[in-house]
């Protein structure tokens, strides 16, 4: 799966989420789950199954984006698929 995630020049506390580019979100089309630092990556993993109104294809892309951001920020992801994150 080709990722769309790219690191943002902003990190940490998000002051104005509307100013973030689509490329920093796990779900870029829906602008859900920003991946701007390691804490946000961990949060996106923890809340992955709570995201509503997205297709399996959206979830495939989001998981690929989360893994790319996790690699960049040094967050360990043991899951091999987004299906491993659902309860």
Q: Helix count, per DSSP? A: 2
Biggest pleated-sheet summary: 2 strands, antiparallel
Instruction: Give the total of beta strands.
Output: 2
Rg computed from alpha carbons, rounded to a whole number of angstroms: 12 Å
Envelope shape: globular
Reading the helices and strands in chain order gives: EEHH
Work out the strand percent: 5-15%
Describe this structure in words.
With 87 residues, the chain is mainly alpha-helical. It has one domain. The protein is built from 2 helices and 2 strands; from the N terminus they run ββαα. The longest helix is centred in the last third of the chain and has 18 residues, at 56-73. The radius of gyration is 12 Å and the shape is globular. The two termini are 23 Å apart. 28% of the residues are buried. The mean pLDDT is 90.
């Amino acid at each position: 799966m080709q990722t769309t995630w790219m690191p943002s020049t902003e990190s940490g506390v998000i002051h104005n989420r509307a100013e973030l580019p689509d490329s920093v979100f796990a779900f870029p089309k829906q602008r859900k789950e920003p991946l701007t630092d390691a804490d946000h990556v961990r949060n996106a993993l923890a809340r992955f199954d709570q995201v509503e109104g997205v297709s399996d294809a959206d979830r495939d892309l989001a998981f690929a984006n989360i893994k790319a951001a996790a690699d960049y920020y040094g967050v360990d992801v043991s899951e091999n698929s987004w299906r491993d994150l659902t309860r």
